[in-house]
Structure formats: C-alpha cells, structure tokens
Amino acid sequence: MSSAPARLPAWLALSGAVLVGVLTAVQARVNGQLGLRIGDGLTAAAISFGSGLLLLLVLSVALPAGRRGVARLIEGVRARTIPWWMLAGGLAGALTVATQGIAVAVIGVSLFTVGVVAGQTLCGLVLDRVGYGPAGVVAVTMPRVAGGALALLAVVVSLQGGVLDEVPWWMLLMPFLAGIGIAWQQATNGRLRQRVGTPLTATFVNFAGGTLVLVLAAVVHGAATAPTLTVPTEPWLYLGGVLGVIYIFLSAALVVHTGVLLLGLGAVAGQLIAAFLLDLLWPAAAGAGVVLGIVTVLIALCSVVVATAPRSWRPRRRPGRGGAAQG
Q: Which residues contact 212 (CB under 8 A, 6 or more apart)?
C-alpha cells in the first residue's frame, strides 16, 4: 500500500479542478465536431476513447510508475482487495464522450455543460455525504449546499430565452445523466488511485472499460443503421482522447484533496467559462445568448466561492456556565 499523498494547498487543488473543467469543455467541442463530420456520434466517441487508450498503454509501459501501478492492479484484483466496481469508472466516461459526440454539435458546449452541472452538483453532494469518495465523509455544510444551489441556478438561467423550444428534451437529459456519471467516476477513480498508487493506472482502467463499451455500441449501432461514414483529415478533430486522458488523470489525482463536490464545482466554473467562450467564437444551432452566458458564468463562479467559504466564517459559540452556550 502506498503512503497518503501530501495535501495540496486549497488554491492549487481548486485551480486544477478549474483546469479539468476547461479541458472537458474543449473536449466536448472537439468530439462533437468529430461526430458531426464523421456522421455518427458513437463512432466518434469510440475513436476518441480508443486514441486515449493507446496513449495510456504507451505511458503505462514506458513509465516505471505505470508498470508499478499495473502490477498493483493485477495483484489487487487477484487478492480481491480491488472490487469490480472500482474498475467500472469507464462506463461513465463512455456515456460522457458518447453524449458529446451525439449532442454537442446541435446544442452547443454551453447547454451540454449546464446539463452536466446539474447532475454533477447533485451527485457530488450525495457522494460526499455518504463518504463514497477517497476523502471519506465530507461534511455537507451550509456553504456547500448554497454553492450547489447557485450552480443549479446557473443551469436555470442558461435555459431561458426559448432554448428548450429549440432542443429535443433527450439531448438535455443525456448531459444531466453524464454529469451524475462524472461525479461518480471522479470518486471511483480517486479510490482506485489510492489502491494502485498512481492516477495513471486509474486513468488507464477508465479508458480500457470505456473503449470496450463504446466499440461494442458503435458496432451494434452501425449494424442496425448502416450509417454513411466519412473520414475527416483535420488532425485537431482527433485530440479528444488526449484531452480526456489529461482531465481524468487530474481528476483522479485531485479528488482526494478536494472531495467530490468541490472538484465538481471547480470543474463547473472552468467548463462554463470555456463553454461560453467556445460558443461565442464558434456558435452552435442552439444557444442561450451572450448576456445570459455572462450571467451564467458569474453565478457559477459565485457558487465556487460560496462553497469554499472557510468554516471560520461561522460565529463561534462561547461556553457558558455548566457547559451551555451563551447567546
């Protein structure tokens, strides 16, 4: 068993969480455009995850930490100290990438992001409360609840202006489910990272499972619908897997320092800022508009500030006679 990692400063851990969100938003745009150009979102998702898996395979073989992590993984599975559900984080990753490939080209990065925000915030609160993440039980304090409520308010604001009339309901439901999966995936990968000693192996397991699921789904979908596929030549369209490797690696490394909810809220801020800029520079078929986008980003940033409010802000209770508190 590896020793516990040194605690990162709060500002550094939260900055990393914001970077996770930025990378997620950029990946969503890349995978969405790849799905549009190829003509099939599931095939695009399988390509994205498959490229990430190849990169991780090379790193796991080339780096000593990767080889040690794989050895601990095999040993843990054989000894049953690593349960099967710790290996299932790739299912959530597969859902997220598939949603990007199917929906983002239509609804835009911003609407994709706000759906993820809703699912990620609610699931993060629950997982922290029950102690599912590697940080154990994280108190659901009033600042955390208020921060989560503000994040959901950002979702409500972003859906104003007739957006719901332009987008099929299931395209908004998919990002919500993906958000739930992302929160669970971050906690699960964080726990697996503790068992194997490196985020690299946890990320590799995530991509291996996700690639398998997506390839099977793409094959079944292709056999049923026989889509006409094209092969775009722009190299940047194939960077989604690399971006996914980076942000899932960071998530697995950071969640032990932040808890599930704060990792999610930091990522939310990064996602919304990047999504607003991407949709501003590269508009999609549906969007909330510039003013609503700015308001949404500001509310989301406030949610992170409120959720990270130190407990010392709360008034202290003074002991009175007989142990009673004085008002």
A: 90
Q: State if pTM tops 0.85.
A: no
Residue 180 has, within 13 A of its CA and on its CB side, a CA count of: 5
Residue-number span of the structural domain to which 184 is assigned:
29-310
Cα-based torsion angle of the residue sequence 110, 115, 117, 119 in order, rounded to the nearest 10 degrees: -170
109 assigned to some structural domain: yes
Amino acid at 190: G
How many residues are given for the chain? 327
Name the residue among 282, 266, 300, 301 with its Cα closest to residue 24. Answer: 266
DSSP state of 86: G
Task: Map residue 318 onto helix, strand or coil.
Answer: strand
Tokens representing 165?
């009339």
Q: Is 209 a member of any domain? A: yes
Give the pLDDT confidence of 19-64 residue by residue, as tens digits: 998 998 898 888 888 888 888 888 888 998 898 999 999 999 999 9
Residue 323 lies in a domain: no
The residue with tokens 């950071």 is 254
186 is a domain residue:
yes
Tokens read off for 239? 């960077």
In terms of Cα–Cα distance, which of 298, 263, 304, 272 is closest to 16? 263
What is the tally of structural domains in the chain?
1
Report the C-alpha gap between 205 and 60 in whole angstroms. Answer: 11
Rounded to whole angstroms, the Cα distance separating 57 from 95 reads: 21
Between CA 124 and CA 119 the distance in angstroms is: 8
Nearest to 104 by CA among 53, 29, 17, 187: 29
